[in-house]
Amino acid sequence: MTIRYPNGKVYRQPSHSKSPTSKFANVNFGDRGMSLEEELNDSNTYYLKKNIAVIHKKPTPIQIVKVDYPNRSAAVIREAYFKHASTTDYNGVYRGKYLDFEAKETKNKTAFPLKNFHEHQIEHMRQCIQQGGICFVVIRFASLGRLFVLTATDLFTYWDHQSDGGRKSIPLVDIEQRATELHYHINPIIPYLDAIDNIIDETSSNH
Fold it and tell me: Residues 6 or more apart from 78 whose CB is under 8 A from it?
């Protein structure tokens, strides 16, 4: 199936895609074989069932333009367009706060490439923060099996600096200093709200 962006450009799935079927054959995540998206979705289901938070993956609107019908009982989508540029991956409510965040992963072992983000995603997070929302990114270094929560404001620092000729990535050593590292659990698989508790508490203490 061919999927195109609103400007007509063909969408090509990146090698580090967060597709639910993606596997990391050379990386052991506790034998889960799950993508970052699957792990977050599973964690959000746990949070919802335990009445801890209501957080969901945002659907991406797609306009179907070409469909083949090989037989009466089946339809095959041949071409589709993203209706508009997507914002971030997840949003919801936790402890009375609006959360909005992106999930990204890389096979790079020493830095996280800023090209994994898009200008409209950065702008969306800026707007949410202006309205009092809490924005962040969940970053996974796939080859290292390490997870981090980095606040959007820290991300902005590197994003804005690259426009002034700065480096096009965030060094792992910087992420280790600025972000909160997460560790896999049984339930939830990714306990990322533990890091958000700290962000909320720090924000409250500053007011």
Answer: 1, 2, 66, 67, 68
Q: Which residue has the tokens 């007011």?
A: 207
pTM: 0.74
- As a dihedral over the C-alpha atoms of residue 1, residue 101, residue 173, residue 27, rounded to 10 degrees, the angle is -40
Mind listing the pLDDT tens digit of every residue in the chain (207 residues)? 544 445 555 555 444 333 333 333 333 343 356 899 999 999 999 999 999 999 999 866 566 667 777 776 777 766 655 454 568 989 999 999 999 999 999 999 999 999 999 999 999 999 999 999 999 999 999 999 999 999 999 999 999 998 778 899 999 999 999 999 999 999 999 999 999 999 999 877 776
**Helix H or strand E segment including 64:** strand 62-71
Q: Which two tokens stand for residue 25?
A: 């054959």
Q: Which of 126, 129, 128, 102 is nearest to 116 (CA)?
A: 102
What domains appear along the chain, each with residue ranges and CATH number? 19-59+86-205 (3.40.1350.10)
- Going by the DSSP 8-state scheme, the letter that residue 59 receives in this structure is P
How far apart CA 149 and CA 175 sit, in angstroms, is: 9
Comparing C-alpha atoms, which of 123, 5, 108 is closest to residue 62? 5
